[in-house]
Amino acid sequence: MTRDFLAMPDDQGYFGEYGGQLIPPELKAIMDGINDAYEEVRQTATFQEELNDLYANYVGRPSPIFFAKRLTARQGGARIFLKREDLNHTGAHKINHCLGEALLAKHMGKTKVLAETGAGQHGVALASVCALVGIDCEIHMGEIDIAKEHPNVTKMKILGCKLVPVSRGTRTLKDAVDSAFEEYMKDPVNFLYAIGSVVGPHPFPKMVRVVQSFIGRVARALFLALEKKLPDVVTACVGGGSNAIGMFTEFLPDEAVKLVGVEPGGKGLDTPDHAATLTLGSKGAIHGFACYTLQDDKGEPLPVYSIASGLDYPGVGPQHCYLKDIGRVQYEAIDDAECLDAFMTLSRTEGIIPALESAHAVAYAMKIAKTMSPEQTILVNLSGRGDKDADFVANCLSL
Ligand SMILES: *Cc1c(COP(=O)(O)O)cnc(C)c1O
């Protein structure tokens, strides 16, 4: 069977039955305008050159692949490799799509860029690129996350963005999205909502995938050069799904490569405290697009939880829903305890402190490596670094 993954989404923004634009007509016109502007500008040499120059000289791309030798020896079994997105300027993969969004905003003559943030990584990345291109930036963040992710909050203030604390609901990511969206709707013609993942109405799941997919393109080429064959397993954590789709896209046609998205199992899948949307969710809609969601019997999103603020979202990118249904990507859950263990183990075997989000993927690799042979390999997308989580983890473990 040939599957033309890159032909997706269709004109209406659908990946199979997921995605689309479940939004009022006036907002649909705005989104279509963004799509048109994006499709026009991405073809131009000046936009490509500006973006590529910034990726190389501002972000520090391409980032390498690292063989985690001591981690592999400790676990036994398959050899574990890390794609070092943690080395990017601002500490995670999010700078990749923020740069694209900020340049698009500038090109479209927008006056303000706004967004929500969970762990603060999207907020810091966006505030940085807005300072870089010289455009106003406003970030909405739940009060719980503000308390937990203090270093990122301080950075956003230094970078000159307007930070809006969100005190409604669970005071985490979903409420921050609602709050930022309300502000956006006050003037969607002049504002750009810079969505922080492959979620939201069309064209965002497509745009964010396109700019993130060089993660996998570079990783696949570097891995082939290093090992002369493709990895057996490629894995990445899934919140909204941008670092995972960025990693997976290039590998989708390689049917022999097993792709695994890792969701936050929180305090356990038998408790309400998780955000394992693909593992336990059902078909629904959230924030203007159709996807699997964790919802109550009225279709309202359930409160979700993860030790990693960047993963606790009750929806998930539409392409992941499609890839789950056709069976091309497998989705697994890792709980908080396994995540913390991986966080500490990677820190102490390799001297790399991972983001708590990324530690979910590391934990999955650690778990399955033992069940595989030493000839086999696992490639983990290390989506970000853990500076932001260091105090929180030290507290958790009374270090
Ligand atoms: C935000 C974030 C994630 C989760 O977002 P995705 O869109 O699922 O990639 C994962 N890792 C890090 C380091 C993050 O900052």
Question: What would a concise description of this structure say?
Answer:
With 399 residues, the protein is of the alpha/beta class.
Q: Can you walk me through this structure?
A:
The chain folds into 2 domains: 16-55 and 94-205, Rossmann fold, CATH 3.40.50; 60-91 and 213-397, 3-Layer(aba) Sandwich (Rossmann fold). 55% of the residues are buried. Helix 5 (121-133) links the parallel strand 5 and strand 6 (136-142). The strands form 4 sheets. It has a 6-stranded mixed sheet, sandwiched between helices. The chain is of the alpha/beta class and 399 residues long. The model has no long low-confidence stretch (mean pLDDT 95). It is built from 16 helices and 14 strands. Residues 92, 94, 119, 121-122, 197, 237-244, 310-311, 355, 357-358, 383-384 line the site of pyridoxal-5'-phosphate.
- The CATH topology of the largest domain is given as Rossmann fold
Number of helices: 16
> Helicity range of the residues?
40-55%
CATH architectural group of the largest domain: 3-Layer(aba) Sandwich
Indicate the mean pLDDT: 95
CATH class of the largest domain: Alpha Beta
Which ions, cofactors or small ligands are bound in this entry?
Answer: pyridoxal-5'-phosphate
Overall body shape: globular
What is the gyration radius calculated from CA atoms? 19 Å
Low-pLDDT residue intervals, each spanning 5 or more residues: none
- Major beta-sheet overview: 6 strands, mixed
The structural class is: alpha/beta
Q: Could you spell the SSE succession in H and E letters?
A: EEHHEHEHEHEHHEHEHHEHEHEEHEHHEH
Strand order of the largest sheet: 3-4-14-9-10-13
Q: How much strand content do the residues show?
A: 15-25%
Q: How many DSSP E strands? A: 14
What count of structural domains?
Answer: 2
In whole angstroms, how far apart are the ends?
Answer: 53 Å
